[in-house]
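User: I'm putting together notes for a lab meeting next week and I want to include a structural view of one of the chains we've been expressing. I don't have a solved structure, so I'd like a prediction I can at least talk through. The sequence is below, exactly as it appears in our construct file.
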Amino acid sequence: MVDAVHFEENAKALYDASRVGEVKPLTAVETKEFSENFKRTNHAVKLWRYFLARSADARAIPHKWASELIPTERA
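Assistant: Thanks for the context. Below is the predicted structure for the 75-residue chain, given as structure tokens.
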């Protein structure tokens, strides 16, 4: 689910980058380094906080709900 959140944003970023110049994929070394350092749990917490805030600001959910649903763990 977390990966699906980024699909549209990543597609737009790739398209925008291609308009500036050639887009090159990460090398095998860069991919390995990214995989070793990526903290999926932290990332999910950050996304949850981000979308809670956006939902509350857009009045899609009450601000009270957002404050009650904010995770206590650090991201």
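A couple of points you could mention at the meeting. DSSP finds four helices and no strands in the chain. The first helix runs from residue 2 to 20.

User: Perfect, that's what I needed.
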